Amino acid sequence: MLSMQQIVRKTKNLIRRIKVMKNWYAFIKPFTQMGTWPRTAHLRSGAKFIVESPNSSSFAIFNEIVIDDTYSIEKFSSPKKILDIGANIGTFAITAAKRFPDAHIIAFEPEEKNFEQLKQNIELSDAKNVTAVKKAITSKRGVATLHLDPKNPGAHNLYEGGDGQSVETVPLTDFLPADVLKIDAEGAEYEIFANEIPDCKRIVMEAHEGNNDELLAKFAPRYHISSHDKIHILTHK
């Protein structure tokens, strides 16, 4: 039997799903167990995302970013330029693009298959204010090996893993200034911010294995920091 807390959480989740999605019913049980996948999630904003299956990383990422609003997109203050580092299939970039149609979003995704799905979702959503860039952001310009996670397309990284894919790397400074920086780079955040902390209105970041406290200490003089699990919301002082 579900606890009252679980019932409240599930009810809030359903209300939120109905609020933001046109075809919300196709993405809840028992309907997720019926019919075929992949499916296209249609948001009321006009954003569209191809979701592989209920057990896929694309389904989990969609729920985190769109339904749970993990990165607090709704609290952004009229940004004009947003950088999405680790864009995956574009869930964050396109959601932000539809909420802020006057903003220019640059979405960085180095992995080939993810990049093709990113471009497909941009086209499906008619998100003309999103620019897709097939490069990895690091601390320097060059070429690196992207290690591919065979089970989770959202966990490809530059440091360890299975088969590799050669990718072009560029420094973050090439694309600054920006109002908002979103980063989910599977550990590359430690290298990206090793030498310089950017001056943005807001930074939203998922941290991975590494010295998280040391990284956040670099931001503390310039940003107010709010953390929940692995997600850090940094707002300029």
UniProtKB/TrEMBL annotation:
Instruction: Please report the stretch or stretches of sequence annotated as the Methyltransferase FkbM domain.
Output: 84-213
Question: What is the recorded name of this protein?
Answer: Methyltransferase FkbM domain-containing protein
InterPro entries with a match to the protein in the record: FkbM_mtfrase, SAM-dependent_MTase, SAM-dependent_MTases_sf
| Endpoints of the signal sequence | none
**Originating organism:** Candidatus Taylorbacteria bacterium RIFCSPHIGHO2_01_FULL_46_22b
The lineage's top-level taxon is Bacteria
Return the PANTHER family for the record.
Answer: METHYLTRANSFERASE, FKBM FAMILY PROTEIN (PTHR34203), SLL1173 PROTEIN (PTHR34203:SF15)
Segments spanning the bilayer are none
